[in-house]
Amino acid sequence: MEEVMIQAAHVSMRFYRELNEANSVKERLVRMWKGERQVVEVKALNDVSFTIGKGEIVGIIGVNGSGKSTLLKLIAGVLPPTQGHLLVDHDKVQLLTLGTGFDHELTGRENIYLNGAISGYSRSFLDAHVDAILSFAQLQEAADAKVRTYSSGMVSRLAFAIATAGRAAEILILDEVLSVGDLFFRRKSEARIREMIRSGSTVLIVSHAPAVIRSLCTRVLWLRQGELIMDGPPDQVCTAYERIGKEMSG
Ligand SMILES: Nc1ncnc2c1ncn2[C@@H]1O[C@H](COP(=O)(O)OP(=O)(O)OP(=O)(O)O)[C@@H](O)[C@H]1O
Question: Which of 64, 74, 97, 207 has most ligand 1 atoms within 8 Å of CB, for mutation?
């Protein structure tokens, strides 16, 4: 394997959630006083190990609640694991997610500056790229309208255009950013992601669309109830995943 970029060794992540959450502080205090407080442990990730080398394009699949976002958060350094070791240079990681950091009372153009600043772009970078961002999002005409007047597809296009405006980081994490917009925008956004991939980044992609995973990834990790149950070539892992899905639904 080429240079190792991410190494997870027996990584576990546990959350604690209160059962029958109280509706008020008073109710909570009364329950605590009566000894009624019940906390359950959620094993979001359980003893997960893998190594990812430079240039690999790794898809992460699994049903809702299987631990995908938790794994991305650990890799991005948002949370530390409760057990195990995760070797990754967080400074090299860029996490792309959509839909956070927009103010719907501001215009599209103003949101480019707001969301761009949150994404870490400088003012001069944004001045130089604002037109290209609007053009990629196909929003030149609507640039000065408030975002609350946009359709959800328009908001997603703008978010994608901002998130991918800069140079790709060495480790690029895409959390459900593909499959947005209409068919034409999807082709365009997939082409842009391919360009970022070609620039040599190591990429992790979470997507509920097996077609996206099959067409972009070189390897797939399948998480089920926090456990890594399969790690292999996209076709093999996606076929097994789809087979289980069909069995469960029919
Ligand atoms: N902050 C938290 N506190 C308590 N439980 C949490 C927290 N974050 C995640 N969980 C739990 O951990 C488990 C894994 O969640 P996670 O968001 O990683 O799943 P996911 O595979 O990304 O799901 P989805 O496909 O719905 O995005 C779930 O049972 C979830 O309820």
Answer: 64
